[in-house]
Design brief:
Blueprint (H helix, E strand, L loop, with lengths): L6 H13 L11 E5 L2 E4 L4 E4 L2 H4 L8 H13 L12 H12 L3 E5 L2 H20 L7 E5 L8 H4 L5 H4 L9 E4 L4 H7 L4 E6 L15 H12 L2 E5 L13 H4 L6 E4 L11 E5 L1 H4 L15 H15 L2 H18 L6 E6 L4 E5 L6 H10 L2 E2 L1 E3 L3 E4 L7 H19 L1
The structure holds pyridoxal-5'-phosphate (PLP).
């Protein structure tokens, strides 16, 4: 694909290759501008963004409300550290707690930090509230999970790329098959303090557990006196047609982990949201972050909460998602073996032997659609929720054409 790339793009790619660590393998597209669901590269070519930065751009690029709030805040106050209060943090904490129907919020920056924070909270809760013997706390996770990239988090990953050569690993985690409530029940014992799950496994390829699984997890954890931590960093904040994917399953976890779209695609903002009986275990000095809860992040985060309170984005995800699903289902047997989707979030398994997911993503990019492969043969589609129905239709037309070309 590199042979016919335009000159600006080639110059940039050589620079990134020489001076950047090679921990990513991006498609050779160099974006320089974006608005809504569309991005423009350095050579002026336009693409429909069907990845939305892994759902960090649920509200689209440069959402006018979010950009206005960020610009106004930049002129006023950007950082105080938590040594002092700032006048933006309180409103954000209250807004987000009420959106989630919980008592309180622990603000952090990246998704991985929210996960790490929840692990610490769950352990402290286990020792101080549940009465687990010191240093024995156990957290149950699921096979195929993705919760971030820190050393503790990759300790309970089963992806060799994420994990190999980064040990020694943090103990205290047990992994069970995803979607299997009986296996989870069997793994719970007196030392179990929490179950940590993605309500839908995003990086694994939009893996949707059987309906009723999350409700069963909730029942089991309540019965056993174990926390249920829902990592909604990718599934939450509108993507699945609800504020939280847990809403779709009628489930209320003890802790929500949020990130990605919480920063409106402008700044990294993450949070652990829960009740005082759990989050209240943290005492001054036990946890923190220099940038966590900074006024710029809080201002943008509060504006994001405001967008979600309208319900418009959740409704768009439901409506557009239904249309997308109908179009994708029609591709099964024509280069696609399986489609999984909830709201405006789809995983499309390309027929074995036809082409790799990477190749399909490259061919889509040539046709002006940005999407990302995962786990070899799956294409994931997660456009900004501001995308229009006809744009989405056009994107599926391009996928259809790519598959037709590959099938000859
Ligand atoms: C992206 C993601 C994370 C990690 O977020 P970062 O901001 O990249 O650290 C954690 N959990 C889930 C489910 C994610 O999709």
């Amino acid at each position: 694909m590199t042979a016919h790339l335009a000159s600006e793009t080639q110059r940039y790619l050589a620079q990134a290759e020489e001076f950047g660590a090679h921990n990513y393998h991006p498609l050779p597209i160099v974006v320089s501008e974006a608005f809504g669901a569309w991005v423009t590269d350095v050579d002026g070519k336009r693409y429909l963004d069907c990845l939305a930065a892994y759902s960090a751009l649920n509200f689209g690029h440069a959402h006018p409300v979010l950009v206005d709030v960020a610009k106004a805040q930049l002129d006023r106050l950007t950082l105080t550290s938590r040594a002092f209060h700032n006048d933006r943090l309180g409103p954000f904490l209250e807004g987000l707690a009420k959106l989630a129907g919980k008592d309180m919020v622990l603000p952090m920056n990246t998704g991985a930090e929210a996960v790490e924070s929840a692990i610490k909270v769950a352990r402290a809760w286990g020792y101080r509230v549940k009465g687990v013997e010191h240093d024995r706390a156990k957290i149950i996770v699921a096979n195929g999970n993705f919760h971030g990239r820190t050393t503790t988090i990759i300790s309970f990953s089963d992806d060799p790329d994420a994990r190999d050569d980064f040990g020694p690993y943090t103990p205290g985690f047990v992994s069970v098959p995803y979607g299997d409530a009986a296996a989870l029940a069997a793994a719970i014992d007196d030392d179990t303090v929490a179950v940590l799950l993605e309500p839908i496994q995003g990086e694994a390829g939009i893996v949707v557990p059987p309906h009723g699984y999350l409700a069963e997890v909730r029942r089991l954890t309540l019965d056993a006196g174990v926390l249920f931590i829902a990592d909604e960093i990718q599934s939450g904040l509108g993507r699945t047609g609800a504020t939280f994917q847990c809403d779709n399953e009628g489930v209320i976890p003890d802790l929500y982990l949020l990130g990605k779209a919480l920063g409106g695609g402008i700044v990294p903002v993450s949070a652990v949201v829960g009740d005082a009986s759990v989050l209240g275990v943290l005492r001054p000095g036990e946890h923190g972050s220099t940038f966590g809860g900074n006024p710029l992040a809080a201002a943008v985060g509060l504006a994001v909460v405001g967008l979600l309170e309208t319900g418009d984005y959740q409704r768009r995800a439901r409506e557009l998602g239904a249309g997308l699903r109908a179009r994708l289902d029609a591709l099964v047997g024509r280069g696609v073996v399986e489609v999984r989707s909830v709201g405006l979030w789809a995983g499309i398994d390309i027929a074995p032997g036809l082409a790799s997911g990477r190749r399909v993503a490259e061919l889509l990019a040539e046709r002006g659609v940005l999407a990302k492969d995962t786990h070899g043969s799956t294409i994931r589609l997660a456009p900004p929720l501001v995308v229009e129905a006809d744009e989405l239709d056009w994107a599926v037309d391009q996928l259809e054409a790519v598959l037709a070309d590959l099938r000859g």
